[in-house]
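TASK: fixed-backbone design
INPUT:
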């Protein structure tokens, strides 16, 4: 039997995971990894910290999104479920690509290619799908969704879930979830999913670059779609979430040990060729164990409702939509101040959070704006679905 009670701890995890993206994308400005714009002082210093969340943060979001989608699908007829999810995802994606995202590629071509045109000139090229911004054989695809690729993928995976619901029914999906919950106990709850993720990474990662372009991103689809569907199947399986709580300390220890191994690997150039397969297996183990640990600790400590949860649950998607463009724009403004990187990074995070929530506060008060940021036109702060569970004695 599946349980339809809302899993409040997953709301808190989703909130924290999205806000972690603000820290992560701010960090991308300061590391040597490829990104849209770069600090003049970018270097290796914080890359070990970035590796703490790199293996698992997006996988966790797709897993939790699968759970949320399953709960919504159980409350709505199939057609209404698909229409609602399409409206909540496609309108923000379209608006984001036309209004929110364009400053990112504009400053990217200004910085990387020395583009001297105005923003208006750039938007004319952007809307005409200009593909002449090229460097080292790579051309910038315009228009682009940049960080909103997650929204596009989530919509496609929702279509897959809706097709499964229409073809085999929610009862059969719940039965699959029951069998999975019975299988994923003890050591198998860690080893089996990690092994599957490892096989995907070892088999596909060498051949399929992570493009975030949807149509050719087969490694990412082979990773994220199963996690999304697993979340949907396991949504109501209370025994599974209790099992993750039991495993939380073991999973955390394994994830941290894998992180230490990955940091060592990345700082040993001679190991790159020799230990690549082993490193991919360790990455997958870190990926899944971190998810187990986060969900396990969340189940233990975050199973409660509050006004803060309801407010942040509503805020998190608009904040996500706006945050990366704000990081890019504020980073350009702060360059002339020549602040030390640590101080500048802190200022950048504070400015991004403040502006993101400022945008949300405006949007939620204007009915015409709400759908373009993923909010229902007439939505009010969410109320508790069931009484908040008491803490365990």
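OUTPUT:
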């Amino acid at each position: 039997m599946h349980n339809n009670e809302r899993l409040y701890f997953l709301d808190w995890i989703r909130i924290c995971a999205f806000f972690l993206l603000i820290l992560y994308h701010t960090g991308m400005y300061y590391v040597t990894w490829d990104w849209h714009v770069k600090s003049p002082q970018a270097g290796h210093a914080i890359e070990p910290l970035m590796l703490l969340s790199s293996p698992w943060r997006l996988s966790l979001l797709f897993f939790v999104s699968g759970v949320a989608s399953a709960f919504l699908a159980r409350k709505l007829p199939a057609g209404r479920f698909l229409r609602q999810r399409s409206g909540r995802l496609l309108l923000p994606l379209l608006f984001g690509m036309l209004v929110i995202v364009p400053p990112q590629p504009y400053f990217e071509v200004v910085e990387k290619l020395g583009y001297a045109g105005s923003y208006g000139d750039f938007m004319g090229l952007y809307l005409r799908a200009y593909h002449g911004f090229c460097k080292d054989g790579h051309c910038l695809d315009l228009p682009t969704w940049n960080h909103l690729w997650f929204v596009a993928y989530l919509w496609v995976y929702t279509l897959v879930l809706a097709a499964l619901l229409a073809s085999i029914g929610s009862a059969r999906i719940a039965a699959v979830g029951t069998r999975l919950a019975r299988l994923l106990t003890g050591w198998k709850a860690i080893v089996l999913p990690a092994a599957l993720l490892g096989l995907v990474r070892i088999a596909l990662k060498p051949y399929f670059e992570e493009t975030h372009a949807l149509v050719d991103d087969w490694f990412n689809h082979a990773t994220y779609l199963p996690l999304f569907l697993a979340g949907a199947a396991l949504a109501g399986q209370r025994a599974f979430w209790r099992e993750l709580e039991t495993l939380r300390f073991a999973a955390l220890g394994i994830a941290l040990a894998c992180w230490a191994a990955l940091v060592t690997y990345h700082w040993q150039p001679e190991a790159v060729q020799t230990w690549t397969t082993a490193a991919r297996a360790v990455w997958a183990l870190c990926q899944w164990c971190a998810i187990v640990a986060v969900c396990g600790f969340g189940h233990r400590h975050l199973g409660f409702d509050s006004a803060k949860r309801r407010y942040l649950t509503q805020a998190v998607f608009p904040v996500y939509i706006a945050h990366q463009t704000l990081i890019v724009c504020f980073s350009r403004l702060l360059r002339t101040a020549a602040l030390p990187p640590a101080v500048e990074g802190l200022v950048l995070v504070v400015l991004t959070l403040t502006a993101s929530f400022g945008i949300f506060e405006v949007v939620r008060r204007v009915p015409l704006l709400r759908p373009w940021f993923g909010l229902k036109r007439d939505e009010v702060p969410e109320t508790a679905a069931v009484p908040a569970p008491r803490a365990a004695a």
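COMMENT: The CA atoms of residues 180 and 234 lie 7 Å apart.
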